[in-house]
Amino acid sequence: MPKGGQDWPLVSDMVTKNQRLLVFTSKQEKEQSEGIAYQWNYMVENQAHNFADGNDGMKAGSCSNKVESSPLNDKTKSLVLVNYFGSVPIKQLSCQFNYEDLVSMLNTCYGATGNRWANFVAVDFYMRSGEGGSFQPTDTLNGELICGCNDVHACVVSYEI
């Protein structure tokens, strides 16, 4: 496991080595005793959003760290987890929030994390939303991570014959 903000292996390298599973724990002692990565040694995480009343968690234009997490701009932690779901799962509201609002929050959290894109995104009801659902924001995120474009499909190299 990389220490001090170093890079993690590429998924393609993990596949080649047949080592594709990353497991994290929230129990600090398990890293020493069982070799399971203690999540707070490796990642920062934002506070989840409360769609129902808007009084806690993330608000449009703001991305704050979860209480257990280091500050979001702590670059000694190389992974970023963005939570985007309500404290009470409401299926109907996920349709409203899992597309454009999620893209907006990913951009907001990008700034809050010291210009780092999320490695993980957690949402409720990923299949429910308008437009491209939570898949389009994920395509945007992967495009930014892979090639600096706002859609992963732009990263594909086309070959002419």
From TrEMBL:
SUPFAM superfamilies: PLC-like phosphodiesterases. InterPro entries: PI-PLC_domain (IPR051057), PLC-like_Pdiesterase_TIM-brl (IPR017946). Coiled coil: none annotated. GO terms for molecular function: phosphoric diester hydrolase activity. GO terms for biological process: lipid metabolic process. This is Putative PLC-like phosphodiesterase, TIM beta/alpha-barrel domain-containing protein. The lineage of its organism: Eukaryota, Viridiplantae, Streptophyta, Embryophyta, Tracheophyta.
